[in-house]
Amino acid sequence: MIGYHFIAFITVAIWGSTFVFTKILLQNGLSPAQIFTLRFIIAYVLMAICCKVMSPRFKLLSDSWIDEFVMLLLGVTGGSLYFLTENASMLYTTATNTSLIVCTCPLFAMLLFAIAYRQSEPIGRHQVIGSLIACAGMVIVVLNGHFVLHLSPLGDLLAFGACLCWAVYSLLMKAVLQRYSTLFITRKVFFYGLLTIIPYYLFYPGFPSLQVIMCPDVLWNLLFLSVIASMLCFLLWNWVIGKLGAVAATNWVYFNPITTIIFAWWLLSEDITLWFLLGSLLIIAGMLLTEKHNLKKVKK
Fold it and tell me: What is the pLDDT of residues 179-216, one digit of tens each?
């Protein structure tokens, strides 16, 4: 159990670092949609090769059209729509608002999970209280002592859309992991993520040239986002949801701002404040309370 939580933490830590690499690509002229598309193309090709090598019988489609439709929803909620709404929100609202709203997705995941599995796996009181404490810590970390929000209805609504996308993605993932391998599901997520991003280019055409992509700064950062942050992290995240459950795994999203600030301190020399330390302690305390029941099982 502890090992699964560690993997979830490492995955979120890597995702928290991606803002640095994405920022470098943006500075080299790539748009958010282009970065997402290139990330998923490389990740999908590598995933297809892995599936072919590891499985002698390459499985192309799901066992039913209903399952295939769920795979499509996973590609939308965890891929195209999630990234588009998150990136677009920052055009209309502040990065603080976006981070704050998107990182509340564990609360919505818990609510969706409670509705969908209220009979078989009810949510305990300690999970609710722990998640609220962790959420409060995340708010303190993101605001970092500046308790002022600049409301922007359109931008905040887009960020909320990204938040709901990830919550739905986590819920759907729990259902399909019971019938399909992590490799197969992750490959389908990348495929449908790419397929559903195509309409975007009908309205906003254009793609970076090969010369731009092969520029060392672009290529190496793109490879990190594709191989590590996309292929490896999506594989690990989908796998750990199956081991920990949608609620416990998604709660680790609260750590995203912590790892982002640590990488900003390490790579961009930004300061770490007392507010950051206080918020981090609350997040850790909330996570421990959320997993109190499971931790008792481990000790036994």
Answer: 898 989 999 999 999 999 999 999 888 898 889 999 99
